[in-house]
Amino acid sequence: xxxxxxxxxxxxxxxxxxxxxxxxxxxxxxxxxxxxxxxxxxxxxxxxxxxxxxxxxxxxxxxxxxxxxxxxxxxxxxxxxxxxxxxxxxxxxxxxxxxxxxxxxxxxxxxxxxxxxxxxxxxxxxxxxxxxxxxxxxxxxxxxxxxxxxxxxxxxxxxxxxxxxxxxxxxxxxxxxxxxxxxxxxxxxxxxxxxxxxxxxxxxxxxxxxxxxxxxxxxxxxxxxxxxxxxxxxxxxxxxxxxxxxxxx
Amino acid sequence: xxxxxxxxxxxxxxxxxxxxxxxxxxxxxxxxxxxxxxxxxxxxxxxxxxxxxxxxxxxxxxxxxxxxxxxxxxxxxxxxxxxxxxxxxxxxxxxxxxxxxxxxxxxxxxxxxxxxxxxxxxxxxxxxxxxxxxxxxxxxxxxxxxxxxxxxxxxxxxxxxxxxxxxxxxxxxxxxxxxxxxxxxxxxxxxxxxxxxxxxxxxxxxxxxxxxxxxxxxxxxxxxxxxxxxxxxxxxxxxxxxxxxxxxx
DNA sequence: GTCAGTCCGTGGTCTGACCACTTTAGGCCG
DNA sequence: CGGCCTAAAGTGGTCAGACCACGGACTGAC
Lengths: 249, 249
Fold this sequence. Notes:
Two copies of one chain form a homodimer. Chain A has helices at 15-29, 41-48, 52-64, 83-94, 100-122, 125-140, 145-162, 166-190, 194-212, 216-248; strands at residues 68-71, 75-78. By secondary structure, the first copy, chain A, is mostly helical. The longest helix of chain A has 33 residues, at 216-248. The relative contact order of chain A is 0.09.
């Protein structure tokens, strides 16, 4: 009867597409906010002039994209946009790509180096204090690969957050899961060597100090150095791994 | 009968989720390649032990994510992962964010600055030649905002491509549509002023030369300068726009 | 007042049918 | 014999109605 969706530019596309676009646009325009509850499927189908299966195809698609939270017996709720979707999409896009890990690391360096520049200018005192606190946590958790890896990530994440750029933040969060695994693993291999761990702490401290001094160039340079060292360690690990394999077999 | 999907970890999730995950994993593992044709919906539903509506919910979701190309009367075909999905996801994630445009620009700077560093090391002679050719195109199309904007974008895109990093490339493509509009518009406002256009060409040329010399630091610095100038122009445009509004109204 | 059972509204699934599009194979006509 | 046209088969697209499963709320008994 109402056929609300018909108003949109909908030629050629199937009903589910129309409904999908309908809701997506409402989400983009802010007409639907996180936490809102949708009407029941039967009512919605009636209101939008489609059958329930078609409506469900659209709703399910939105749920797969993380835009909707559909709960059995409760209803469908609008969910705040989540970086996990981005991460999934990225994973799918990068799946056919070779040596993804190194590649994603490059993206991480890109984001962080720009973020720290912005952070030098825009970070509030509170941001800096938070980062300093995470630096302490980093020192405290040197002997635990699990906690140490988490603290390391939290430190870098705080820098990106301090940049005040939502876009950088979202992209960083999206690529993080892809890095996490290797991150913790590498730490597991190196946390027993005092030379490395002390260097690690020092590198982080240097980065923080440059940021506290609001010096973008220095901050980026030190961050890059930190990454280079990490990259060097990774190579060494690879080499020693192969050497171990060579001697064992 | 066959219930192929049941084998997966499927507790708690609904049927459509199971089927969705089933196909997503086959896509990630490469078991399903781009161009492959899926079985008919009726056969698939039977094979996977679900009803057709449920199967369709999953298939439609995959299609919405750009992983499947479903054509009426033909069948469902696996589609190669596309950056457009990423772009859509990014748009959705960033929708609630304030001043998205400036934010996304920061992401662009981040990607490009890292990409050009990599490109300085990894770009092939062919890559450099391609970029040089685009530089020529840039010069040729100075008087046409539309073509000029396109050439500008092509130039920067070629740099990212020359980085050899698929991840950087995908992310760059994902954020590009968000930038395109403002890009062309800005050009429309400035292409009549020789001082600006000549500066524009010169900036691009400087960037290219530093890259050709394989000098990452210089290349990044010049690229950053290029962005800063663009940012300054954007501000001036905003100011003059407000001034014009003030006098006209 | 608290707890249990029941009822209602919700999403989840199924069946079977019909429509619309595409392709193809067969027959008809030149 | 060859080309065109038509009809049939296969495919996705849609629909209607029914039933199940889950969650919360109401109500009754204790």
